[in-house]
DNA sequence: TTGAATGCAAACGCTTTGCACTCGG
DNA sequence: CCGAGTGCAAAGCGTTTGCATTCAA
């Protein structure tokens, strides 16, 4: 499942926010610092959750993150994963999205962007923000402003031209 | 909550599908016929659910529909409302959408279209399809085709220019 | 009549919460 | 040390399901 359609941008917080030892530091320490910078106590569990989700631009469910942590032999409770994800989302470190009624997925890419949604696998892929532009856009209801604009392109495998 | 942003199109099945007595028939009978045409036994409960949802272009949750039926003194079980909505959606008479992780809403407008989503009230408003056009659109993953393209514009009340 | 649809309540899956225990600063 | 964070299990909430009863054709 290589993401050749993933966004090109880096999901990291802006580099200026981490003026200290940044160059040779392993990911885990960088994550811990990010958590700290956002007012979160970088506990072992939180760092693991954030590390898995934020290591690269991905979309994961709480269950997937839980599974991945436990696969490594570590112990985390389901509640902690959910609570951690909620706090990370509140603090703006990750983004919660819900294109599927069954479950939420968490997106490590925090800048607003659009998604391909594979209807068969449920998989999500980022769309490069530069690949979408509007030539016509509706007037907004009076007194309101657009917080975000999200485009979802639901994909289905192309029907091989059957001899109909 | 007048929908000046509602789509202009009619959500009915195509008129040619109903060659019989159509002109003077009250809504309830029209609904019953539509159900029948789609292979659904038009029971009292189903007609009520469909009638409420399809009377005009709206977006309603299962709970809202249940409440509206019961407000009129009629008896329907929650399960029947959910089951009916599921069948209506399967048969293409309504459309299930989920922009909110908490609940599904059912949309009486079945042609693909876009939505304003009021982040404060949770309310949805249709966007006229003619009010949205793309000037740039991403290349789709190989072998895939776009089943639908959905744009969601999440709205927030404009911040009155406070004297900050 | 008779299979399909309904109603109720129990089951379900995802997420949150209450509370005692533990850990990080 | 001490409050924030964790873990477990129980509770919540929207939705589905099992089964006996009822209804539409």
From TrEMBL, chains A, B:
InterPro entries for the chain: FUR, WH-like_DNA-bd_sf, WH_DNA-bd_sf
Region span, Disordered: 1-27
Subcellular location: Cytoplasm
Superkingdom as given in the UniProt entry: Bacteria
Pfam families documented for this protein: FUR
SUPFAM superfamilies xref list: Winged helix' DNA-binding domain (SSF46785)
CDD domains named in the record: Fur_like
Chief subcellular location: cytoplasm
Keywords: Cytoplasm, DNA-binding, Iron, Metal-binding, Repressor, Transcription, Transcription regulation, Zinc
Subunit structure, interactors included: Homodimer.
PANTHER family linked to this entry: FERRIC UPTAKE REGULATION PROTEIN, ZINC UPTAKE REGULATION PROTEIN
Family membership noted in the UniProt record: Belongs to the Fur family.
Record protein name field: Ferric uptake regulation protein
Organism name: Steroidobacter gossypii
Gene: fur
């Amino acid at each position: 499942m290589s993401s050749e359609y993933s966004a090109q941008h880096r999901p990291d917080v802006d580099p200026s926010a981490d003026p200290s030892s940044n160059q040779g530091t392993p990911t885990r320490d960088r994550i811990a610092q990010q958590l700290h910078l956002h007012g979160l106590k970088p506990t072992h569990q939180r760092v693991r959750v954030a590390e898995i989700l934020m290591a690269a631009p991905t979309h994961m469910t709480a269950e997937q993150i839980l599974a991945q942590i436990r696969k490594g032999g570590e112990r985390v409770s389901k509640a902690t994963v959910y609570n951690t994800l909620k706090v990370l989302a509140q603090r703006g470190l990750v983004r919660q999205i819900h294109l599927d009624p069954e479950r939420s997925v968490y997106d490590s890419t925090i800048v607003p962007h659009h998604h391909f949604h594979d209807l068969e696998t449920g998989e999500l892929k980022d769309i490069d923000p530069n690949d979408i532009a509007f030539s016509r856009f509706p007037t907004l209801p009076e007194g309101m402003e657009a917080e975000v604009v999200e485009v979802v392109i639901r994909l289905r495998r192309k029907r091989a031209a059957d001899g109909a």
